[in-house]
Design goal:
Blueprint (H helix, E strand, L loop, with lengths): L6 E5 L6 H14 L3 E4 L6 H17 L4 E4 L2 H6 L4 E4 L6 H7 L5 E7 L2 H9 L4 E5 L15 H10 L4 E4 L7 H7 L3 E4 L1 H4 L4 H12 L9
Helix pairs in contact: 1-2, 1-9
Length: 214
């Protein structure tokens, strides 16, 4: 697995308009998003397949990885860079068996270090904790402490993604704690200027003097 999970990890909003979706994602990529995760809870299977193919082509043109949320079959069908599974989305070990060697596997671990340890043992290449802050997408999600990031960084040799209610104001505390990437949905894609917002988050990881390097 040689997929880089770092910096701004952009999770797509629920949209059935594929042109609008691609336009928003391209703005995020131009702004410096390092990873795109395709997550669409309202699309039909046909729409989902078409959008995933289009996003895969777009991400490849920017040389950035496309991660598919939940759907192993979709990740395999479009040869995405990887798959991300939540706690109820299927077996990590089975997904690892079906994915190709170059495809990465991420796992949601919420506020539980032991879940992250189990996920890595089952083949996860990166893990996600959260919601660290109040989130409109998942308002009742567990709220882990920043110390969880530090503990996981010491124990686990994989990238750590933070998710949940992340803003420009609170993101630095997560980065200082040791996360590899910060995952955003609404704070990025609901912004008036997605490119500019992506650039702001990107620059939290890359000093402004070299921020032109995506």
């Amino acid at each position: 697995m040689n997929v880089s999970i770092s910096g701004l990890y952009a999770i797509t909003p629920d949209l059935t308009d594929t042109e609008q979706l691609l336009s928003l994602v391209e703005s995020a990529l131009r702004g410096g998003a390092g990873v795109i995760q395709y997550r669409n809870k309202i699309a039909t299977p046909t729409q989902r397949l078409a959008q995933a193919h289009a996003l895969q082509a777009l991400c490849q043109s920017y040389r950035k990885p496309l991660i598919i949320n939940d759907h192993l079959d979709l990740a395999v069908a479009v040869n995405a860079a990887g798959l991300h599974l939540g706690g109820d989305d299927g077996s990590l070990s089975e997904a690892r068996r079906q994915l190709k060697p170059h495809q990465c596997l991420g796992a949601s671990c919420y506020d539980r270090l032991e879940l992250a340890q189990t996920a890595v043992a089952a083949g996860a290449d990166h893990i996600a904790f959260g919601s660290f802050f109040p989130s409109s997408v998942k308002p009742f999600a567990p709220r882990p402490p920043l110390s969880l990031i530090r503990s996981a960084r010491q124990l686990l040799p994989v990238p750590i993604v933070a998710i949940g209610g992340i803003t420009l104001d609170n993101a630095p505390s997560l980065i200082d704690a040791g996360v590899s990437a910060i995952a955003l949905i609404s704070n990025l894609f609901a912004a008036p200027d997605v490119y500019a917002r992506a650039r702001q988050f990107h620059n939290l990881f890359v000093p402004p003097t070299s921020s032109h390097q995506n």
